[in-house]
Specification:
Layout lengths: L1 E10 L2 E7 L4 E6 L5 H12 L6 H6 L18 H12 L8 H4 L5 E8 L19 E11 L2 H27 L21 H12 E7 L34 E6 L21 H13 L10 H21 L1 H8 L19 H5 L6 E3 L13 E3 L5 H20 L4 H5 L10 E7 L7 H15 L12 E7 L3 H6 L5 E7 L9 E6 L1 H4 L10 H12 L10 E5 L2 H13 L4 H5 L3 E5 L9 H7 L3 E4 L4 E3 L16 E2 L9 E2 L2 H6 L6 H5 L7 E2 L2 E4 L4 E3 L8 E3 L4 H8 L1 H5 L6 H10 L4 H11 L4 H11 L9 H21 L8 H5 L1
Length: 797
């Protein structure tokens, strides 16, 4: 049994989204404020059974340890909910049935894949008599408990508020003492003025989670999130029990795990916030020999009794004189009282202190009899402690699921059966972990969850790990087919709000059934390429693709010092990827999926028509030759990026004269060299020079800086020589020939020999950065609109 996918509706910006879970690990990735945390919060709210009483679980009325407030409803739904309030206040009919409310309430659909051999486990959830295994869906809705009571209470409270508002308005019309005049722009509101105001206070009292069985025959299996949530029949009744009891266990590691500076007191510590406490809890739950003792506990119990007996003898021996002195006092009604000291050896207490776990800081090469030096856990770094803590917590989850040790004996008989599925939710494990430890954690986590004799590769029991993260290091360590990318979507209308889609990257990076044959090679290249670089593009707001090392080295300086793009571009999270010119276009499908503003910086790579040499006669070996760009020569562009993103155009004259709007396709803008106006010698007329690549464009944009370089080497020396020639034509030809030198070394020499603030970016790069800044600003505005608050009395006017 596995969870195939999860649908979330009406929860914050997750208006309607589907998250496909991988068989083992699933990582939720995306830029800030894209919905990752909302997805985890929704799962925890609906599925978390911590702190719920058996009675509440049985009734289905239990509340999660994570609360849901009115602000957690998708903002665009409030317009309709406020309309319900308006109608009720005016004695009109609207929102009279639970079916009217359900499409607006937070909803979680869980779709399980159930094998035929497991049907007996879900007999209480079988949707139809024809169902014979496969997908099985359950919907959990946070909906009104009693709609009639909700309506009556809202009307009573609103009418009382309305009456008070009228009184306040009448009082405002009376003359006021000038000394008690109210400040200008003062507004006086009385609760509740709308359904939203009412539910902001009352939602936890008026709402509850109810569960419904879905029809697998009506499921939409599309993976592009363009599905419609299944509608419930009006007459469908909710279940009167928690639907997943006995099917899967849910365990959670929160983002706030209680680790902090050991010298700082936080007032109230989380349970298990240090390793000693966790060890103590594990021992008490699974290993304590005094709890439900069995044959295997005899030796331990005997050792505890012997230790207690020996300690009692020692206590009474050392206190002999003191006890005799007390015994000689006598008490009224007693004759020669006899006092005996008795201790209690409790193994639980022996672990409940920080020195119960020691970290040895020496290793003995042989048994010298000299004790090794060690430190208690408080003296170890947060990262190391946090790693051990999370791993130990997962071990505890696993052993509790598998009913290890005393856990099986302590449970009621009906709860002793192991659930076939274990779902583990981990929020932002990168907190307090440095990069290397993050990688260790995600590589080992699933193995820890399966490290049990009945688990391993066994298909009888399944474990599914879901991790939300902002860390590119975690994303780098797993297969990209396990990533689920949260893509921000702007508002589409005045009553709409920004939402999020979830992109299943297995359709981009996967294999087999998830990929078409003709794109599999490209997908493999993209995955392999990203494996050799950081995966920060999955968390970025924008992307810049560059062709070579020189652009990659200097681009951060151009962003930071761009006079026209100001600091907002430098403050944005931009991922700069270096991709060779012949491969950048292969990222097209991935960039389209991510939907991020992307600047592609490429070279024109001018080429002249092929010239056949005598030895090539009769063969197809002739190829276009690279050449210095010139107009009206019939040259072509060899740039794959230009030809791919700009509609296949390859004529160099067309490319060099292309207007701005034709360099943009959707959210992608291609930037490449064009004519650079330059006054080569003092007194000469301004002339345009056409560079071949980024490097000669830098030189032609900063001629005086290159001419004044002290002791240049390599390509920079050749460029300085070229800029000191007599004519611009000779200069451009010499610059073109200098491109054979190491380009990355040239960029590093520039950083060493010049102040980056004095280096002016070529015009085509400045234009591209200005476009990227504007695109990011536009996206930010689209993603942060306000939903106007409309009160019932305003709507009634």
């Amino acid at each position: 049994m596995k969870i195939e996918y999860i649908d979330i509706q009406n929860y914050r910006k997750l208006k309607t989204c589907r998250i496909h879970l991988a068989e083992k690990e699933t990582l939720l990735v995306g830029a800030n404020n894209s919905g990752k945390t909302s997805a985890m919060d929704a799962l925890i709210f609906f599925l978390d059974q911590r702190g719920k009483t058996p009675a509440s679980i049985t009734s289905g009325k239990s509340l999660s340890s994570r609360k849901l407030g009115a602000a957690d409803l998708t903002l665009s739904n409030w317009h309709q909910l406020n309309q319900f309030g308006k109608a009720w206040a005016n004695a009109e009919e609207a929102g009279e049935t639970i079916s009217d409310w359900q499409p607006l309430c937070p909803t979680l659909d869980i779709w399980l894949k159930v094998e035929k051999s497991e049907i007996h486990r879900v007999r209480h959830l079988i949707p139809t008599l024809k169902w014979d295994g496969g997908l099985l869906g359950i919907r959990m809705i946070y909906q009104p408990k009693n709609l009639e009571a909700l309506k009556a209470d809202f009307i009573d409270r609103f009418k009382a508020a309305e009456k008070l508002r009228i009184t306040a308005e009448n009082n405002d019309k009376k003359p006021h003492d000038s000394d008690k005049s109210e400040p200008r722009n003062f507004t006086f509101s009385i609760w509740p003025g709308s359904m939203r105001e009412y539910l902001e206070r009352e939602v936890s009292r008026a709402f509850e989670i109810k569960s419904y069985i879905l029809d697998p025959a009506k499921v939409n299996l599309s993976s592009d999130n363009k599905f419609r949530p299944q509608e419930l029949a009006e007459e469908q009744l909710p279940l009167d029990f928690y639907p997943f009891k006995g099917l899967f266990m849910v365990d959670i590691i929160d983002a706030t795990r209680g680790f902090s500076d050991p010298y700082v007191s936080t007032g109230s510590q989380h349970s298990g916030s240090n390793l000693s406490s966790q060890m103590n809890q594990y021992y008490n739950r699974h290993l304590n020999p005094t709890d439900l003792p069995g044959d295997e506990d005899l030796d331990a119990l005997k050792s505890i009794a012997y230790a207690q007996h020996s300690f009692d003898e020692r206590l009474n021996d050392v206190f002999t004189n003191q006890l005799k002195e007390i015994e000689g006092l006598g008490y009224p009604g007693f004759t020669d009282p006899h006092i005996k000291l008795s201790s209690r050896v409790n193994p639980i207490d022996n672990l409940d202190h920080e020195a119960s776990i020691l970290f040895e800081i020496q290793k003995a090469s042989q048994d010298t009899g000299v004790p090794l030096m060690s430190l208690s856990e408080r003296y170890n770094g947060l990262g190391y402690k946090n790693l051990i803590s999370m791993v130990f917590t997962m071990m505890s989850f696993r052993d509790q699921w598998m009913r290890v040790g005393k856990a099986r004996l302590r449970m009621p008989e009906e709860d002793a059966t192991v659930e076939p599925l274990h779902l583990i939710l981990i929020e932002e494990p990168e907190a307090h972990l440095h990069a290397q430890v993050q990688q260790v954690f995600i590589k080992k986590a699933y193995g820890v969850l399966r490290n049990h004799k009945d688990l391993g590769e066994s298909a009888k029991f399944s474990s599914q790990l879901v991790v939300s993260t902002h860390s590119s290091y975690l994303a780098h360590e797993v297969g990209f087919e396990k990533l689920r990318y949260f893509k921000r979507k702007p508002a589409t209308g005045s009553q709409d709000v920004p939402t999020a889609d979830v992109i299943d990257l297995s359709c981009t990076f996967g294999s087999g059934k998830n990929l078409q044959e003709d794109i599999s090679d490209t997908a493999k290249f993209v995955a392999r390429y990203l494996k050799t670089t950081h995966c920060d593009l999955f968390f970025a707001n924008g992307i810049i693709l560059v062709e070579g090392a020189a652009e990659r080295i200097l681009m951060p300086h151009f962003i930071r010092n761009n006079p026209n793009a100001n600091s907002s571009l430098d403050n944005s999270y931009i991922s700069i990827l270096e991709v060779g010119g012949s491969h950048a276009h292969r990222l097209e499908s991935m960039i389209e999926v991510l939907g991020l503003p992307t600047l592609v910086i490429t070279d024109t790579d001018a080429q002249c028509p092929p010239i056949k040499l005598p030895e090539d006669e009769g063969s197809a070996n002739a190829k276009p030759r690279s050449i210095r760009p010139k107009l009206n020569q019939g040259y072509k562009t060899g740039s794959h990026s230009i030809k791919t993103w700009l509609g296949g155009v390859d004529d160099l004259d067309t490319v060099l004269s292309m207007p701005e709007h034709k360099k943009i396709r959707g959210k992608v803008r291609v930037a490449f060299q064009h004519g650079i106006p330059i006054t080569f010698k003092t007194g000469e007329a301004e002339t345009k020079a056409y560079p071949y690549t980024f490097e000669d464009a830098i030189a032609l944009t900063n001629p005086e800086l290159f001419r004044n370089l002290k002791k240049p080497t390599g390509m920079m020396k050749q460029m300085q020589t070229a800029l000191n020639l007599d004519t611009l034509e000779l200069c451009c030809e010499a610059l073109y020939k200098a491109l054979k030198y190491d380009k990355a070394e040239m960029a590093l020499d520039l950083l060493f020999c010049t102040d980056p603030t004095e280096l002016v970016a070529p015009a085509y790069i400045q234009e591209g950065l200005e476009w990227l800044k504007q695109a990011l600003d536009d996206a930010s505005r689209d993603l942060t609109p306000e939903v106007p608050e409309t009160t019932v009395e305003q709507e009634a006017e």
